[in-house]
Design the sequence.
């Protein structure tokens, strides 16, 4: 069982600080990979929360593999996000204040697939044709990237 799930058993849905990482994965056509999340029915980036003993790059690598089937050959640090803008309440009621480190990956191997326990679809999108229903925390990360 994950660290966050163990905490949730003790504190319920009360707000907690959740440290994690996400990855903006681009193909050779500079399209962004997104997955259609089961929990909020929104498109989002590969990513998730830190487990005990992991560093942020390890979180990004693990989540990328678990959620996309892809293995990063190289990750580039984008930035770390936190604060009130990264408060999020999941559809089932859990509340978090995310401390989220974002990475960019353009060099990877593997066969694209999604984790059917977390998503219902996965695909690459042109940056000028991103879906409207993007998961709130990921929308802020993507917006930041596009302003660079």
Sequence:
């Amino acid at each position: 069982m994950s660290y966050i799930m163990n905490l949730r058993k003790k504190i319920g849905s009360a707000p907690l600080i959740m440290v994690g990482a996400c990855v903006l994965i681009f193909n050779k056509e500079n399209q962004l990979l997104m997955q259609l999340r089961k929990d909020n029915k929104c498109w989002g980036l590969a990513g998730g929360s830190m487990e005990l003993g992991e560093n942020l790059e390890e979180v990004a690598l693990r989540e990328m593999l678990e959620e996309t089937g892809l293995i990063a050959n190289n990750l580039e640090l984008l930035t770390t996000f936190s604060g009130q803008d990264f408060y999020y309440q999941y559809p089932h009621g859990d509340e978090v204040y995310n401390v989220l480190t974002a990475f960019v990956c353009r060099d990877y191997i593997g066969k694209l697939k999604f984790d059917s326990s977390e998503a219902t679809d996965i695909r690459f999108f042109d940056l000028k044709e991103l879906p409207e229903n993007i998961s709130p925390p990921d929308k802020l990360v993507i917006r930041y990237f596009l302003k660079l």
